[in-house]
Structures are given as C-alpha cells and as structure tokens.
Amino acid sequence: MKRGKMLGLLTVAALLLSGCASRQESAEPAASTASLTALQYEIENIAVDFSDMWYFRRIEEQTGVHVDFDEVKDPEWNSAVSLTFAKGKMPDLILRGSLDVEEYGVSQHLLVPLDPYLEQGLMPNYASRLEESGLKDQLTASDGHMYQLGFLISQGVNTNGHFFINQRWLDKLGLEAPQTVEQLTQVLRSFRDGDPNGNGLREEIPLEFTFDDNITGIYNLFSFFGLPLNEDYAYVDEAGAVRFGPEEDGFFDTLAWLHQMYTEGLLDIDFISQGSSIWAEKVNEGQVGVFSYWRLQNTALLPDVAKAYRLMLPVHAKGQRACLPRNMDIIEFGAALTTDNRDIEGSLRWLDAQFETENMLVSQNGAVGDTLIRREDGRYEVAYVPKDNELYRSVPVICGQFFAPADYYASVYVPAAHRQEKAGYCAQYEEAGVLETVSHKLLTTVAPRTTAENAEIVRLKAKLKAIVDAEIVSAVTKGYTEAERASFLQRLRDAGSEAYKDTYQQIYDRWQGERETRE
Amino acid sequence: MNKTGRTSVFIRYALSYTAVVLTLFFSIAGYLYVQTSRHSRERLIESQINRLSRIASQHESYLSEMLTTAEEIGLNPHIEAFRYDEEPWKAYDLQLQLIPYTSTNTFCDQIYLHLNGDDRIYSSSSSMTLPMFARMVSYEHMTAEAFADLIRSTSRLTVLPSQRISSSLLDASSAVTFLIPLGANPGTSKGLMLFLIKDSVYQSLFSDAIEGNVNTYIIRDGEVLSCSEDLPVAWEQAAPHQVEGAQTFRWQGEDWTLVSQKGRSWGLAYAAVLRNADLDAAVGREIFSTLAVLPVFVVLCLALALWMARRHARPIRALTGLLSSASGEDDAARDEIQRISTGIRQLTNRNMELATRLERALPMQRHAFVFQFIKGRFVTREEAVAAGSAVGLDISRSCYAIILCSSGDGCDHPFDLTQPPFAGLAGYSGAGVELVALKAQLYLVFADVSETLARLAALVRCEGESAGGRCVTAISAVHTDFEEAPAAYLEAAAAYDNRFVMGNEQVLSYQDISADVADILPQAQKLTTSISQALALSSRELLNARIEELLHYLKNTNMSPFAFRMIYNSVINSLMRTHALSMVNTENARDIYDIFSLSSCQSIDDLDDMLRKLCDLLLSGAEVSEEKIAPEDEIDLVTRYMEEHFNDPEISMAAIADSFELSTTRFSLSFKEKKGMPPLEYLTLLRVEHAKELLAKTDLPIRDVSGQVGYYDSGSFIRRFKQVTGETPLQYRRAREAERKQAAPEEVTE
C-alpha cells in the first residue's frame, strides 16, 4: 500500500514536472495562436465543419488556441479511435463520443492523466464543478488517475416511471389519493364500479400498464412491496449486498396482488402483450385510473387527457416501504488529451473556456440574444429551438463540452416547462423517500466490469429474464402456489441466478474497494 | 500562269468529290434517321416493358415472401388458436413466436396476426383488440367497423389498395394492406396475417422511372393497388386501352402510350403511361446524339475531298506545264484538259517524226548489230534476238550464215535484203555491211530453212554481177548456235580466200574446204582445256608451259592459216567464256581480241602474242578479283586447305564442309560460284596437275604417283587423269619423254 502511494506520488511529481516543462515550452508562443488537432465526434445526421463553427471561433478568440477538427461520424467513431491509436500518430485532443480510458489510458499510456493539472488549477471552471458534483469516482480510472473530462447534463431525474392517478375520477367519486396498497385496491375497485367517466358503461380500466419497461410497465408496481425491480433484476441493498429481485418476497407479494387485480378485473390484462403505443392509445381514450409514465406534459398523452391526472406517490404494502429503482447521473466521455499533445496547457485552457457557464450554455442552446436569453435573475433560458438541427450550424450542441451537475444546472439555467415538471416529480419522490438508497445504476452501469464478466452477465440475464417474465405472466393470470414458487426459484437457480448475483457482487465489491483506496 | 486553268481542274475535282461526300452524307443521314427513329421508339417502349418486368419480379417476390410467412406461421405448431380472454398468458408466447417472422420480412415491417375465434390482433411487440386495431389504422376510405369485419370474415387473399391512413402504428401516410390466410390450405386456416405495406415502399419500386415523366401502376383485378402519377392522365382514362404490350390512345388532345405487362399470378398487372410528346422528345434527343457526329464526319470528308482534289490536280497541272513548255504555248484561255489533249496530239506527231528519223538511221544500227553479232558480243541468244528486233531484224530463226561478196565497180553499198529480188523469198531476214579493208560486203542472213540461205547467197551473187560484172561470193557453213558467229565469219572468209583456187563461177561454200579443220578442232579443244585448267589453278608458270605446248603443237603441225585462226578462235573464245566471271574488264579483252583482228593475223607469233595478252589479262583479273572483291573467306580457306592436303586420300567434301560449319550443298554452291567449278573437280584438277609434274619429272611408278597425289586405287587415278587430260598417265609420261628427247639435240645444237 505504501509502495503504491509512493509510486503514485512519484508519478504525480513527474507529471507536475512535465506539466511545468510543457508550460515553459508553451510560454514562448503563448502570445500567438497555438494550433492543435482534434478527433471530433459528430452525430450521424448532421454535417458540420467544426473548424469553421462560430462557437469555436469565439473560443479561439478567448483562448488564443486554434483547433483543427477531424470530424468522425457516429457509426465510424469506434473504428476511427482504434485506428488513430493503432497508427501511432495521434491528434492532440479527442473530443466527445466514447473512449475506453482503461485501455488507452491505464493499459497503453496513450492518454495524459489530467488530475495533476486539475489540482494545479489549470481548469478552474471544470474542476470546481466536478468537485461539487461528487461524481469524481465515475471519472477516475482503475489506476487512480483521471484521463478524461466528463460530459454531464444533469436534470435531476432520479427515477424513470412516476405513478399518476386520475384526479377527476377521484374527485368525482370523492376519494382521496391512496397511500397504501389496500387503499389503492379500494380506489381501483371504485374506479371499476363507480362509473367515474359517467357514460354508464363499465369500461374503465383501473390499472393500465405495459409489461417489462421501467416507464409504463408493471415492473414499477413491485415497488409497492418494497422491491425496486429493474430491467437487470439486480440491485444493492443498504448493506451493500447484491440481491436478485425475483427471489425476494416482495416479488411474490406483488404477483399475488397483481393476480388479485387481474381476477377482479382491475388490471388490464393486455399488459402482457401490448406495446407503449397501444397503451398510450388506451390512456388517451380517457378510461384509465392509474398508470406510470415519465411525465404528463409533452409526451404521447393528449394534453386534455394529461390534465385529468396527478402524481401519485407509490403506495406501500403493510409493513413495507415503497421502493422504486433510483436513477443517477451518468457521466459520459467529454474530452481527453493524447500523449502526442503539443500544448497541454493551451489544450486545457481551450477546454476549460468551454466550461465557462455562458459558453457552455451557448454551446448547447445557441447564441445569447438569439435562441438563448439571459434573465434578470442571471439564469439562462431557451428562447426557442430552431428546427432541423439549425443550431449545429453555429454551436456544437451535444458534440460540445458540457458539465452541469443538477444543482449547478438549476442555478444557472431555467429548463423547459416539461423538464421542470419531471424534476418536480423527482423531487417529490426523493422527498417522500420512495427511491432505493443505493442506485442500481452503480452496479449495472458505473462499476467497471471485465469483458468476461460482461459476457457472463449478458448470457445469464437472457436466460433469467425468460423465466422471470414467463412466471410473471403465469402468476398474474393464473396465480401461484407455494410449490410453484419453489419450482420457480429452483428454475432460477438452475439458470444461474446465484452466479448472476455473485458476478455483480464481485464487480461491486471491486469498485467499492478501489473507491475506498482512492479516498 | 494558268490560274484560270488550274482553278478549273481543281474545282472540277473538288466539286465532284464534294458531291459524292454530300450524297453519301444525305443517304446515310436519311437512313440513320429512319432507323434510329424507329428503333429508338421501340427501345423506349421496350425499356418500359423491361422496367415493368423488373417491378413485377420485385413486387411478386415480396408477395411470395409474405405468402411464405403466412404459410409458415400457419404451419407453426407453437402457434395455435386461442381466446385471449380465456388464456391471456398464451399471448406472451405467441409474441415470442412472431419475432423471427417480423425480422425476416424485407417488404414490410408491420406484420399482424389474427386468430379465428379471437377478437384480437397480435404483433411481435404488441397486441390489441380488433376494433382498437381497426380504429388505430384508420383508413381513409373504410370505416373501422368495416375493416374489423373484413378481418374477421376474410378467408382468401385480399388486398386493400393504397389509401391514406392516420395511424400511430405505421410511420406512413398511406399503405397497401394484404390479408393472407394462414397455412397452405385457406379453407382450414386458423387465422390470417395482415401485412401493412407503406406506400413509400411501392414508390421506391417505381423510383427507377427515367426523368419522372411516366405514370406507373400496379393493378389487381382492375383496381389500382399503388401508383406513381407524375403525369396528369389518370388510370381511368388509360384503363380501357389496356392490352398486353403497347397501345396508343388520345386524351384531352394529346397522344399517350400505355405499356402493360401481366403479372405471373394473383391477378396482378403492371402498367406505365407515357406522353407521346415526351417519347418523341426522347427519340429526337437520341437521333440528335446519333446524327450529331455526322457533320463532323462530313467536314472531315470534305477536307479529305479538297485534299484529294488538290492532290489530283497537281500532276495535271505539272503535266500541263510540261506540255506548255514543250509546245511553247501559254494559252490561258483553254482549260487544262484541252491543253493536255492538244499536247498529246503534238507529242504524237513528234513521235512520228522521231520514228521516221529513226527509220532513216536503221541501216547504221543494223550495221553495228551485224558487227556485234559477228564478234560474238551477245552473251545469250535472247540478248541477240532482242538487239536484232530493235533494228528490225527477226533473227529468231532456226539457222544462219555469213555471206561475203566482193564489191563490184560502183557498188560499194550492200544490197537491201528486204527489197526485190530478195523479197521474193520467204522465211528469212538479214542485213549487209561493207568491209572496206576486204573491199567486200558482208551479209548476215537468218532463215527458217538452210536452203534459203544458199538461195540468198546465189541472189547476192546474181545481183552483184548484174551491178558490176565479176563478183566473188562466199558463204559460211550453216550454223544454229549464235556463239559460233565468229567461226562462221572465219568460215566465210576462208571460203572467200579460196576464190584463188576455186574461181568465182559459183558461190564459194565453206563446206567444200572444211575437211582438215574438222580434224584439227578436237586437238584444239584438248589444248584449250589444259590452258583453262592452268588458269583455274591461277598458276602463271603452268600457264606459260601450256601456251608453249600449244605453240609447239601449232609449229609442228602443217596447217593452213585458216586452221590456225580457227584453232585460235576456238581457244580464245573458249577461254573468254569459261573465265568471263573472273574478268574484271571484259572491254580490255575485246580490245585484244575480236574476229576481225584475228582474221588479219599474218603469223603464228601474232596469234601467240594475242593469246598471251589475253591469258595475262584473265590471270591478273582473277588475282585482282580475289584480292579486291573477296577478302579471304571460308572458300579461300577451303581452297588453301585443299591445296595443302590434296594428297590426303581421306579428304572428302562432306568432311571439309563440316569442318567449316557449312552444309554440303551450300558449300558446293558457294565454291562453284567463286571458283567456277565444283570443289571435287577442283580437287581432282589439283591432283592431276601434281601427277603431271611427277610423271614428267620423275620415274616413279604410276601406282606411287597415284598414292602421292591422294588416290588409294591407281585404277581410279588413271580414270580421273584420262578424264581431265584426255590421256592416260602412261601416255602422258611417254609424250613428255618424246618431247624431251626431241628438244635435247636442238639444245645441244644451239
């Protein structure tokens, strides 16, 4: 451990020295414009000359650094990156897209570790924001260095599916919003029997869901019984142990309740087979009592229909705490400097200028006074969104540099109304404490996994999902006995549920260990 | 000088060629216009038929795919009819079963399944009630209820033509719908498949239309399934004219062409409607592109025509110039053809004048011809015949003779043998010359039969006598070989000289005095051979010895001067012919020797002097020839080799040829060309000459002599020796011994 620290210190010292050297080297031409090259990611359906883009001319004026871009479209990006490193002649910068920093930074040492320069204060805008975000772990490679700058647009979305209940029906029937499973069951029965739409027909659908997606699917309903069931079935409990959702009691409790809903005619049995468009069609017919969705505004729902609904906190079963899967901000790859970089200081100056608040917001939304407005309270707001990707003519939008953690973003930018709506729902759920404590995203997305581990997870997931989904369909429509429950669990074990859990546990433990080591 | 004339000829040519070029141009252009016009239109129609075939093939392969999908789903044992409201969990499995079929279909991405007895529609990703599906598809021309009923009741392939839809299920504004019963046997079908085909897929089928000026239709049972309509004409106007192939119809004052093509099955047909005006324009463009190259071709041809006119006019101009300068005329008013005509007439006249002059000069030329003939200057018979023909003498007759006739008083010129009384004879020709020194006239006469020659001689004598009183006439023997002309002269001269003995009462004939000469000539031939061999061996010493032998023979033989001259003539003529190749300057030889100088020789010494000069000339000519003309080559090497190794009995021509890397045939030919005799003959000659030396100067037995000169077998040696010398070795030795004995007392006396 001590030896590791010593090596780390020596490395940092060496890098500091090399940084000083490069600063000294670049000091002389600082007055004049430095010229760098960059491999720039470009989304497929646009064709833009980044070298001649207004936004980058503005950054050049501010920094004295000129960058010549080599644009590569999305489908060719990965092969272009591989070729760039393979042929030995690398550009100074690699911008956006994706980059395997473990491979090119940790293993091949072809990327410049940036953490020493951040500590030196060469990127004040970015460094301070990164520090505040608490997300440094996501950007730290396995050797403890940061080889990349992150790209983050945090909108404070902490869960995908929120529950909505037909407020008009509640009002018509004189009901309160339910808080428990029992209350919800009663409300659903009232919806079924109370003819809340007033047409005299018993055509109301109290519960309308699709099957296995995490926005409109019944997976969200497992949260009522304390089970944060996600598409990967694996999650981490508060003790740091990896759990496999379908093996939990909450899974079977939910199935029993859903079977009851089905048999009572409270659950639209079409959830088994219907897609989201059919689901939306039904909701838009105004006959649905409860559903889960991303939000109400600016979605597939008709505005008039949407107005009938209000957010519903997930109800909880007796003795249980409702628990929905928690989303978290995932940092994407923003930029990296290759070891061929000819002006590290200039490169970092050029990059950090893009993280300056106004520059950054302009890069996403266009020029201030045109598509972007600066309000009196100092925050920025989008005036309008040009059609047909017009913005890309002047600013890089999604292909530029952006790092905005949720709090910071909210302090400088006024999002569109529908985004505010979603953020409000997320805040309410957070406040109500109905989200899982440790986001399963740490397990399934953030914690790095080896190629072998990934292959194993993919293989086992396919087998387990087939068993789980078939069991859900069967249990909801036909119910289940204890023997069937035991049989199901046995089938899961036979299909490798234990290995699935163990693999995830191994990944999580390793990541946690590295994080603790760094701390 | 003759600008008007020159222009005239040039313009004539230019106009002629231009007319030809333009005629060709208009003929070709007309032909191409007619052909291209017809073929272009046919090709355009054919291209539309081909296009429709392509569309049909593509479309029907898509339909086959759909039918196959429906059949496979119908036969899939895992897909069974069920009622969703009774067994909803089966929907989950059903969707899993449908996934592979969705991903394999390339024509449409919207496949739905309806099972009999159930009121739902399934896709691989969703399911819904039939009424909801009908509502969501929302056809423009069909109510949801009608559509749902259609799905419930359809038991055979049904196609709903393209119509507008407003559906969230399909990302398209219009679609063609296929309802295909499941399985191979429609009657026992457990449901049906619905294929919603975006109309954009059909439009992409039609998108290969050139320039977009065509309406394309896919028709089923008279109903348009889908179409692309770029032209204002609607299918309803075209439909009544539909036949297989192309059909023209008129609508709203315009002509249209309808091209139709039947599908292979399902009652499908494919059609395209084109505006005739567009077709004409396309044809026009094609004709233009075809004919556009012709003017370039014409310009090139015209340039070529002008060039040819100029080229052809130039020699005429030159000819005219020549004629003008020849005639001294400069008549610019007349054109060149007229001037050429005039010039040719003038030249013809001049030629006639020249012919007349030539005729006048003919006696002199005949005179020269006669002398050349008698001196033996013509190498071949053909050369002599040609020369005779040139002077108006047909000498290609079977025999000839020379007549000498003494000039009478007042009669120096020879008689014209073409005039009477000679003209009364037939089958002869001849001419006479005057021999001033002899005071005689010489007639060289040729005849088809020898009797004519005698008659001619008699007539000459008669004419001579009638002209001047006494006349001596002599005639040589009759000859056939032109090479014998000098001998014939000598014969005539001999006969003429005999006048002192025979008188002049009749024609003196050589035949009467020729007996002793006949005995002498074989001996002369033998002597000639030995001199010729000495010349062949290029041995001056040997040559002198042979000439001495000849003189010795002549001095010791009593013979008349005529005999001397005959022998000498024979010897010299033979040498000149045999060694003509080695003679550098034949003129020198002729200076030394001609028959007239020979006939004027008065002593043996004169003859000897002449012979030696000639031999010297031949010998030096051969040496010069060897030195200057041919540097030492393979033949020289071979010659030297043979001279050094003639005594080797093993020597053979094949071995020599091999050692010098020559083929035997080529070696033999090259040797003969250079040495005048085959190599084997040369070797034999070498051996015989050395044998002569040994025979004359030693007492070696014949057998030993034979061995020393390269013969194993003395019999062979003797045969060869006799072949070459005319004597056996023993005869030769005895003859030499006799000569030595005769010479010895004289030497002592001296």
SSE topology sketch:
The complex is a heterodimer of chains A (519) and B (750).
Chain A: H1 2-27, E1 34-42, H2 54-63, E2 65-73, H3 77-86, E3 93-95, H4 101-107, H5 115-120, H6 124-133, H7 136-139, E4 149-153, E5 162-166, H8 167-173, H9 181-193, E6 205-207, E7 234-236, E8 242-244, H10 249-263, H11 276-284, E9 288-293, H12 303-306, E10 309-312, E11 332-337, H13 344-355, H14 357-365, E12 372-374, E13 380-382, E14 403-404, H15 406-412, E15 413-414, H16 417-432, H17 440-446, H18 451-478, H19 482-495, H20 497-518
Parallel strand pairs in A: 1-2, 1-3, 4-14, 6-9, 13-15
Antiparallel strand pairs in A: 3-11, 4-11, 5-9, 5-10, 7-8, 12-13
Helix pairs in contact in A: 2-13, 10-18, 18-19, 18-20
Chain B: H1 3-75, H2 89-104, E1 110-115, E2 120-122, E3 127-129, H3 130-137, H4 144-153, E4 158-164, E5 174-181, E6 191-198, H5 199-206, E7 214-220, E8 223-228, H6 235-238, E9 245-251, E10 254-262, E11 268-275, H7 276-291, H8 293-327, H9 336-374, H10 381-390, E12 399-406, E13 428-435, E14 440-447, H11 450-468, E15 473-475, H12 485-497, H13 499-502, E16 508-509, H14 515-536, H15 540-555, H16 561-578, H17 586-592, H18 595-599, H19 604-629, H20 634-645, H21 653-659, H22 664-675, H23 679-697, H24 702-708, H25 714-725, H26 729-749
Parallel strand pairs in B: 15-16
Antiparallel strand pairs in B: 1-2, 1-6, 2-3, 4-5, 5-6, 7-8, 7-11, 9-10, 10-11, 12-14, 12-15, 13-14
Descriptive tags:
heterodimer, A: 519 residues, alpha/beta, D-Maltodextrin-Binding Protein, domain 2, four-stranded mixed β-sheet, disordered N terminus, B: 750 residues, alpha+beta, Beta-Lactamase, Alpha-Beta Plaits, 4 domains, six-stranded antiparallel β-sheet, disordered C terminus
Number of domains of chain A: 2
| Number of helical regions of chain B | 26
- What best-fitting shape of chain A do the alpha-carbon axes yield? globular
Briefly note the structural class of the backbone of chain A: alpha/beta
Give the name of the CATH superfamily of the largest domain in chain A. Answer: Periplasmic binding protein-like II
**Strand line-up across the major sheet of chain B:** 3-2-1-6-5-4
Strand runs of chain B, count: 16
**Averaging pLDDT over every residue of chain B, what do you get?**
80
How large is the radius of gyration of chain A? 26 Å
The CATH architecture classification of the largest domain in chain B is: 2-Layer Sandwich
The CATH topology of the largest domain in chain B is Beta-Lactamase
